[in-house]
Amino acid sequence: MLDLRLYQGREKPTWCPGCGDWGILAAVKNALAELEIPPHRALIVSGIGCGSKLPHYMRVNGFHGIHGRALPIATAAKLANHALTVLVVAGDGDSYGIGGNHLLHACRRNPDITHLVEDNRIYGLTKGQYSPTSEQGSLTVTSPEGSVELGFNPLAVAIAAGASFVARGYVGDLKHLTSLIVRGVQHKGYALIDILQPCVTFNRVNTYEFYNERVYRLEETDHDPHDRLAAFRRAFEWGERIPIGLFYEEERPTHEESFPALREGPLVERPLRPSLEEFEALKAELL
Amino acid sequence: MLDLRLYQGREKPTWCPGCGDWGILAAVKNALAELEIPPHRALIVSGIGCGSKLPHYMRVNGFHGIHGRALPIATAAKLANHALTVLVVAGDGDSYGIGGNHLLHACRRNPDITHLVEDNRIYGLTKGQYSPTSEQGSLTVTSPEGSVELGFNPLAVAIAAGASFVARGYVGDLKHLTSLIVRGVQHKGYALIDILQPCVTFNRVNTYEFYNERVYRLEETDHDPHDRLAAFRRAFEWGERIPIGLFYEEERPTHEESFPALREGPLVERPLRPSLEEFEALKAELL
Amino acid sequence: MAEKVINRLSFKIGGEAGQGVESSGAGFAKALARGGLHIFAYQDYMSRIRGGHNFFQIRVAERPIYSHTDEIELLLALTAEAVARHLPELVPGGGIIADAELKLEEAPLADRGVKLFHLPLAKIALEEGGSRVMLNTAALGAAAGITNYKLEHLESVIEDNFKVKGPQIVKANLAVVRAAYEYAQQRYAADFGYELRELPGPRRLVLSGNTAICLGAVAAGCKFLAAYPMTPTTGILEWFAAHAGRLGLVFKQTEDEIAAITMAIGAAHMGLRAMCATSGGGFSLMVEALGLAGMTETPIVIVEGQRPGPSTGLPTKTEQGDLLFVLHASQGEFPRIVLTPGDAEEAFLAGAEAFNLAERYQCPVIILSDHFLGTSLRTVEPDRLDLEKVEIDRGELLTPEKLERLEDYKRFRFTETGISPRAVPGHPKAVYVATGDEHAEDGRITEDPALRRKMVEKRLRKLELARRELPPPVAFGPDPELEETELTFVAWGSTLGPLREAVERLNSQGRRAGLVHFRAVWPFPEGAAEILARARRLIAVEGNYTGQLAGLIRQETGIKVEGLISKYDGLPFSPGYILEKLGELEGVKSGA
Amino acid sequence: MAEKVINRLSFKIGGEAGQGVESSGAGFAKALARGGLHIFAYQDYMSRIRGGHNFFQIRVAERPIYSHTDEIELLLALTAEAVARHLPELVPGGGIIADAELKLEEAPLADRGVKLFHLPLAKIALEEGGSRVMLNTAALGAAAGITNYKLEHLESVIEDNFKVKGPQIVKANLAVVRAAYEYAQQRYAADFGYELRELPGPRRLVLSGNTAICLGAVAAGCKFLAAYPMTPTTGILEWFAAHAGRLGLVFKQTEDEIAAITMAIGAAHMGLRAMCATSGGGFSLMVEALGLAGMTETPIVIVEGQRPGPSTGLPTKTEQGDLLFVLHASQGEFPRIVLTPGDAEEAFLAGAEAFNLAERYQCPVIILSDHFLGTSLRTVEPDRLDLEKVEIDRGELLTPEKLERLEDYKRFRFTETGISPRAVPGHPKAVYVATGDEHAEDGRITEDPALRRKMVEKRLRKLELARRELPPPVAFGPDPELEETELTFVAWGSTLGPLREAVERLNSQGRRAGLVHFRAVWPFPEGAAEILARARRLIAVEGNYTGQLAGLIRQETGIKVEGLISKYDGLPFSPGYILEKLGELEGVKSGA
Ligand SMILES: Cc1ncc(C[n+]2csc(CCOP(=O)(O)OP(=O)(O)O)c2C)c(N)n1
Ligand SMILES: Cc1ncc(C[n+]2csc(CCOP(=O)(O)OP(=O)(O)O)c2C)c(N)n1
Ligand code: SF4
Ligand code: SF4
Ligand SMILES: [Mg+2]
Ligand SMILES: [Mg+2]
Fold first, then answer.
1. pLDDT tens-digit readout, D457-476
2. Which CATH architecture has domain C206-389?
3. pLDDT confidence of residue D129
4. Mean pLDDT across chain B, nearest whole number?
């Protein structure tokens, strides 16, 4: 366990008091400390949104990119230097709305990165429009008569798309969330952790009370995270009881392992250019 | 049944002889004739790829757009004039690669359109690169050492994302395919029909022989298309035996039904502007 | 005490995000308008939901005004930081309203000759209304009291705004506003040199650029908005969402901006007047489909509300950095029209005319707005937004009757103007395929070089006509012919307001200044070269670093704009800033 | 019969897609190069996989050539349509090779003085090789036979090309080529006025623009290509895919172009030299992330291979319609560099130098290629692609040693040049956040107006230096100082080749013509204005409708380019076309 103060950032978070993002920040720091990954050995890539500002609020290598594109940035960063631990932290709008296609393809690729989704079921930073995970019928500034789309089920889709680690955390259960992040980072491959995160300003439905009443830990049931069908079924459980924990896990070669170029160490550390001999051989193909 | 000659286009298809797209074209014409939808009452929206040229090869309203964007174009076209029958016809690269995000969100919206995916598991028009549905390890011009991604499972993902009609057809079984398209059009809501389509030029694995040996009809089993879990399990069946037919179906309000503006008839037929009274009321909000 | 200044005041509310700075400001602005006063208001806020520092500034006058000023007379400080930030803007004799709890130091205020009006706002809110949440209501009551402004206008706004929350809340707020009003009026009104008095006359609209565009669009028959939320055009989405049910519109929130524009294309292809709204980042994602609209000749309207870039930049501030971007976006060459309204009234006209232009020229039309134009508020005479004056011209759109009589319909027929007869799907005589590939007159794909050549020429020929029909730049100032004018500003978009006032001030100082304002930039309007050629000395005023319009003018006319007054710090231009920079350009230190 | 023309020949293979037109053509081109001849070859194909009409044209000479010509001397027709299409291009005395099965009519050929060489190609393929698939091999053998070209070069190419298919196939193809060669040589060689003779000397590379860019990139240390397939840069993807394992590179085929560019950004941020390749449509999707690279100062390289737009346009043809698009793409203002190599050699240099520029200026670099440049082939001396001459300059990239010695690292430090010290993640002394929001020197988000102003200026200041370091336009022609030149063409990108030859022809006709070619267009290179100002009469030659470079020149220098020779029908320029259009411009009917 490293000293938590190592991760202390210089900036004060701009989040609303009580926002679930504070807890996610704490969990990320806790997990890294527990995993003994110092700030300079981790990279956190984020998108745009309230939650995506997270890397600014701790000490860590950060890339705060554009809306919806954290996954491909992180995937390539990991290919470039697979010695670093790479995390993606982004909102539900970012990850499932504009970024949905990258989610599908990350599941297929299985890059060794951990994707934390700050799922407040709302667009926070743009002031309260409904998001993909907003329940059908949600009343927001852009859906005064109720949103018309079925709420997006990230866990079911990730399982269907081939994700090798699919979990749900809750900021109200910080210890559990921390342990999920630890496991996600330890997992070799793409780990999706959807995090129930109350937005105290714009989401009046999915509050701490709402979740506190409903949430239960999968670990305390007989759920077998290696059973895809069971995981899929659990992913549709949402109502009186809401499961958190590890839904699905499977072992598969990672994206990085499938590139021969990475076998001899991080790509950024390899000699920059081909040898003269290699280069002349390339030219010889054209003769 | 309308006269098939009604749908006869002026252009000769540019597809390779033997390409599965010929069969899909025939099935589309057959289905429209059977449904007695004349060419001017249907709109086919397509993307870019070999198969996406289909609307040019028959008589029908067509919109041959850009790569990956047929779904939102079609969704809005249906909102604008829901009296027309709207189909989307596009390749696997188009629908699941670049267009993957729109697929996810179409499943949630449930627009009353029928989406035919010409799934040849390859990029045809750009000459043989692997596609999202190419099996892991596929050897192509851009994957001479084998593709590294897990093959995309469109049926499982669509079921997970909330699609209300999920099916698979095979061009080698034209009658069955036609009947699937008919059912898809009749289905009220978003119908995804993934079509096994041999590309005789670039895909040397998924040939007619390959499919002929493996394909079986779900209708001839005890599969219950209203059982989501069973559908999900079947969606992973791919090997010695490959199921075709209707995997999953459910009734849900369509996208168009959730817009009050559409209740009095197609939007394109409504009076263009507000009345003076309505307009003055809008201004009065600013006083 | 000197005589009171009547109805000339700049009032600023400053506080943290989440304190209701904007809603209070907008409410007060409305109350002033209801009293027959002219206002201009703009807001400045940070990209965060709580904390930080936001402000809302309202300028009041008895005649139409087009801009804010840098100086303020009255500050309502919800935080101590508001005082620290805005004290330098206060004129001597100005005042600060603050809750007594803030415990501000009086000395630095006194040094500047600024009065402190300490009031027990929270206490009043608690005692009269039962909740601290009503502190803002108390503050507004105090502001009205100090300026002696008629309370009933504020009361009526409070009634309207809180109606949805039920009669209890309305009643409590009214009690709070009255108590604060009286407290402030009795103690401080006599001591404050500025007074606001109701004026007789008709009521005026309090209009933002965003709302103006919505009203214009709806007046012109727009029935479809597809968009993904993005500052500063989110207000357009919210307006459509709020009115869709009532007006029979469709508002579609999409998964991203690619879906937004392609949905607009799908709807427009079927014959709807369809629009999308975004900012530069979202427009970036629309670029590919913009070309599709160009190639398929689909009439769509895009509102691009600029904010400072590149990338996420300053997401809640203002800039004019995207002109050349929208002019050249997407591969290949095709016609597009770019409108650059300067104020809310022009935004209304642009919102309406955009659809006529789009359908007349069968091409995408971009309304290039910005944060300042989109979110600032102005009083506008209601008859300036006249539904009956909004003409609808659908161009070469074929009616079913015309289609009946047609044989061998060709969607992309070669014509002299380049504009082809347009039919929408649904009619048996007009079954065709629209395609983003190059095509023949009937829509089939072609790779024939001669046909290709003709199609490129057909499409681009449309710009020739559009060039002539677009609103030409307008010359403002006492000498619109620019014959006697020694100095002419040239500008586009939202700099219009601050510039109009800067020009007025210059002329009142004895200079002969003018202003040429582009309401439409592309196709470069016919007549622009002539007007510019008449100007003696041209100075561009643009909210960007490189002087994008100035570059375009040189490219199109060969005329070199001599000077550039630029701004790229996220803040809008003010008349004072323009005069100060003019002074620097002219080598004179200006006192403005 | 007149004396034979030696080693001056244009040879065209025409047929349907799927008939192997391109592979045969490329094989023959290589065989010619192996005989020491100079070639220039280009292909024209349709956007379909089978059928339609494609051709491949090879021009042969004894000296370096830069372009194809409109006239051909020998046509290998795989279909009757090939004859119908290309007969008008054949010079009198030229010949057509065709399978006897095609049963061509001789009369129209005879009318043009064109000989028909009917051969039983399919029969030879069947009899000697056992399969009709080898008809192409037979045809190439016939072409070599008729021109008396040494068979062994063709044999060696066949051996190389068919090696992967096993010795059986090699053997069969060799048998076919020999049989056809002998048949054709014996019957027709004497009767054909053109002969191809081996030349002594070193072997030359047969190089396309696409491959040249790959070689340049790899020589400069590029280790990462992320891309989504799109004509005309798919060749770059395929080259990387084919060589990734061997060279230790990563090639990543992505789900779309947004992922491609963001992956390049992710990799570059970590310190790799990373690239993506696309065409205008894919670049459209990259626009938003381009701005992210600009704002985070991430060095990436993008190859944009132009094809005719808008939208899907003519997907397999060529155009130069995207110059202003790539110059202005993305919201806001930020530095970018646009390289516009003119031929394969320049493409190699651009491919290498792009990475140095990207890292030196910490900004995106765009290599603006096109279909013609990317896919045409030229013989190039091997020593022009010299690994050892490719310098690597990583600019202000901090080494671990330098980082060790640092205190208080600031990624975006204000410096005189605007270029800040760059550290990549992984070092304890350099832990920072890069962001697309406006930021302070240390990377934290700021909305402070003064800081914002300084950051905009810092970033854009980098262009000042880049302007001076970019390759200036080059003047070609007998009078590079342009002092005595009466007519100067001005061009960018792939028009270089055809123009060089057009200028040569003009000068050989007694005119005094020159050419100014831009190898880099943005930032507008220092010195360009001066060169252009020296030119007496400027005529732009551009593969677009509007004359985009001409407009830019006027914007940047005030110099008005007098004439424009444009082309936007999908076909590349040829020297003959340029001279013809020049004649039209000059009011003289040219016979060229
Ligand atoms: C391309 C683009 N479109 C729109 C936006 C505006 N925008 C910023 S954040 C955001 C959504 C935020 O929602 P989410 O991702 O759920 O994050 P949260 O704020 O809720 O944490 C949007 C739409 C943007 N920055 N970029
Ligand atoms: C934005 C964009 N990127 C790339 C392309 C090039 N492109 C055209 S078709 C195609 C893929 C075709 O594959 P698929 O969708 O499976 O259709 P198929 O040809 O196999 O029927 C690609 C990559 C394009 N047209 N637009
Ligand atoms: S708006 Fe919601 S998500 Fe954003 S900081 Fe506030 S509480 Fe958190
Ligand atoms: S390349 Fe494949 S998909 Fe395309 S037309 Fe030929 S067989 Fe069909
Ligand atoms: Mg959210
Ligand atoms: Mg395909």
1. 999 999 999 999 999 999 99
2. 3-Layer(aba) Sandwich (3.40)
3. 86
4. 98
CA atoms within 13 A on the CB side of A253: 11
pLDDT at D1 over 60: no
Q: Percent of chain C beyond pLDDT 70?
A: 99
CA-wise closest residue to D202 among D33, D345, D59, D65: D33
C-beta of B75 in contact with ligand 4 (< 6 A): no
Query: Mutating which of B32, B84, B267, B269 best tests the C interface, going by the most C Cβ atoms within 10 A?
Result: B267
User: What does pLDDT average to over chain A?
Assistant: 98
Shortest alpha-carbon distance between residue C292 and chain B (Å): 7
Rounded to an integer, the average pLDDT of D164-170 is 93
Name beta bridge partners: D99. Answer: D119
Residue nearest to atom 6 of ligand 1 (CA): C230
User: Which residues in B lie closer than 8 A to residue C428 (C-beta atoms)?
Assistant: 38-40
CATH 3.40.50.970 is right for the domain spanning B4-284: yes
Where residue D198 falls among pLDDT bands split at 50, 70, 90?
Answer: very high
The reported pLDDT for the residue numbered D588 is 62
Range C282-287 average pLDDT? 98
Q: Are D481 and D475 in contact (CB under 8 A)?
A: yes
Peptide bond into D232 cis (omega under 30): yes
The mean per-residue pLDDT over the stretch A46-52 comes to 98
Q: Which of B16, B67, B142 sits opposite D253 (nearest CB)?
A: B142
Q: What is the pairing mode between strands C115-119 and C90-99?
A: parallel
Please give the Cα distance from D226 to A71 (Å, whole number): 14
Sketch the domain layout of chain C as residue ranges. 5-195, 206-389, 400-469, 474-590
Subunits with 3+ C-beta pairs closer than 8 A to A: B, C, D
Whether the predicted pLDDT of A233 surpasses 60: yes
- The response to whether residue A199 sits with its C-beta less than 6 Å from ligand 3 reads yes
Region A87-112 average pLDDT: 98
Give the gyration radius of chain D's Cα atoms.
26
A194-203 residue pLDDT tens: 999 999 999 9
Nearest CA in chain A to B258: A148
Contact B273 C249 (CB under 8 A): no
Q: How confident is the model at residue D591, as a pLDDT?
A: 45
CB–CB contact B142 D256 (8 Å): no
Return the domain boundaries, chain A.
Answer: 4-284
Q: How many CA atoms lie within 13 A of A3 on its CB side?
A: 3
Q: Which atom of ligand 1 is nearest to the CA of C315?
A: 25
**Nearest ligand to the C-alpha of residue A127?**
3
Could you tell me the sign of the dihedral formed by the alpha carbons of D83, D88, D91, D92, in that order?
Answer: positive
Among chain B, residues having any CB pair with chain A shorter than 8 Å are 96, 98-101, 104-105, 107-110, 132, 145, 148-153, 156-157, 159-162, 228-229, 232-233, 235-236, 252, 255, 258-260
Domain covering D474-590, topology: Rossmann fold (3.40.50)
What ipTM does this complex have? 0.98
Reported residue count of chain A is: 287
Q: Within its chain, how far is the Cα of D503 from the centroid? A: 21
Residue pLDDT, tens place only, C165-181: 999 999 999 999 999 99
Please give the distance, rounded to the nearest whole angstrom, from the Cα atom of residue A163 to the centre of ligand 5: 22
Question: C313: which strand partners?
Answer: D437
Q: Measured from the CB, is residue B124 less than 6 Å from ligand 2?
A: yes
Write the Ramachandran bin of C382: left for phi over 0, alpha for psi from -120 to 50, otherwise beta: alpha
CATH class of D5-195: alpha beta
The whole-number average pLDDT for the span C122-146 is 93
Contacts of B279 in chain C (CB under 8 A): 215, 218-219, 387
Percent of chain B at pLDDT above 90? 100
- Which of D207, D246, D270 minimises the CB distance to A286? D207
B173 lines ligand 2 (CB under 6 A): no
Angle at C334 between CA C328 and CA C335, to 5 degrees: 90
The whole-model pTM stands at: 0.98
Q: Do domains D206-389 and D474-590 have the same CATH topology?
A: yes
